[in-house]
Design goal:
The chain is α/β, with parallel strands linked by helices. Strands 2-1-3-5-6-4 form a six-stranded mixed sheet. A six-stranded parallel sheet has the order 9-8-7-10-11-12, sandwiched between helices. The radius of gyration is 19 Å and the shape is globular. About 2% of the residues have low confidence.
């Protein structure tokens, strides 16, 4: 995963690294734009935790060899997992949190006291928390979710627990879309979930959970001509911010939400997973939905 920068009012002192330092690796390929290490190293410094977060560029073809060796490292405390390793690492750790088990992907992993590795994914709850911050509460809304990859699937499972009026799912791979919809329906039978076309007509919220928008010239995930004023359009893409899709939606009178809100939300959950306290200073103190770990904003007051 990747997380936003943490704003601080003072320079962060140099980290003191010694033989007792616990290691947190961020693994992915590429890693040139990741910001998680800055956030976690700041949190470790503030909490006086003897730990350091280090980004490592690990290609897909080298992941197996990397994990076989690195998991034997005694002072490795955990991993932040970003593309393209989210699904592969889910099958490499020993235990999965419920959502990670449903989705089949992780973006964090930690070594438990018994030596077993536990993985979790916070794309879904991070997105929902971001939506609450931005005034896009999914409860009672008709939602179109475009994209059923690791992030999209996790978002679908989180949304189903927020009691939407309707959850429609689209993916270019119709088999994947059907499987995810069936899994969500089985887990949350009270949520009306269907497989849909990428047509935003009649929806209150449209979520782009695909990578479309990261590169110049990418097509839009839905037909923007069918967007209507007052719709909420949520993007998971963080760069550029806003995306061309977000700009087009804004021009049509939609309320738009960039990927930054989701990634700030993810950071709240990921920090708690590793025993750290984090709440973006500019974000409203809402009650975080989802995982049982205590991440109430009141814990983050200093």
């Amino acid at each position: 995963m990747d997380t936003p920068e943490k704003t601080t009012s003072h320079p962060i002192p140099a980290l003191d690294i010694d033989g007792a330092t616990r290691l947190l690796f961020l693994i992915g390929d590429p890693i040139s734009s990741v910001r998680s290490p800055a956030l976690f190293n700041s949190l470790f410094e503030e909490s006086k935790t003897n730990a350091v977060c280090i980004p490592l560029c690990v290609s897909a073809e080298n992941l197996e060899g990397f994990w076989s060796g690195v998991r034997q490292t005694g002072n490795l405390a955990g991993l932040l997992v970003t593309m393209p390793h989210k699904r592969l690492m889910a099958s490499r750790v020993d235990d999965l949190d419920p959502t990670a088990q449903q989705v089949g992907a992780i973006n964090v992993a930690r070594r438990e006291a018994n030596g077993r590795w536990r993985g979790a994914i916070f794309d879904g709850w991070g997105c929902v928390l971001g939506m609450l911050w931005e005034g896009n509460d999914p409860t009672g809304k008709r939602i179109l979710l475009v994209g059923c990859g690791g992030a999209g699937s996790a978002i679908g499972f989180a949304l189903a627990q927020m009691n939407p009026a309707r959850l429609a799912i689209f993916d270019l791979d119709t088999t994947v879309a059907g499987r995810v919809a069936a899994q969500i329906s089985a887990a949350f039978p009270l949520c009306p979930v269907t497989v849909s076309e990428p047509d935003p007509t009649g929806f209150d919220i449209v979520i782009n959970a695909t990578p479309l928008g990261m590169n110049p010239g990418d097509p839009f995930p839905v037909d923007v001509e069918r967007l209507r004023p007052g719709m909420a359009v949520v993007d998971v893409v963080t760069k550029p911010d806003p995306t061309a899709f977000g700009l087009a939606a804004r021009e049509r009178g939609c309320r738009t939400q960039s990927g930054r809100a989701m990634h700030e939300g993810q950071a709240v959950y990921a920090a708690a997973f590793f025993g750290q306290r984090y709440w973006p200073p500019h974000r409203e103190k809402v009650v975080p939905p989802g995982p049982a770990e205590d991440i109430s904003p009141q814990r983050h007051e200093h």
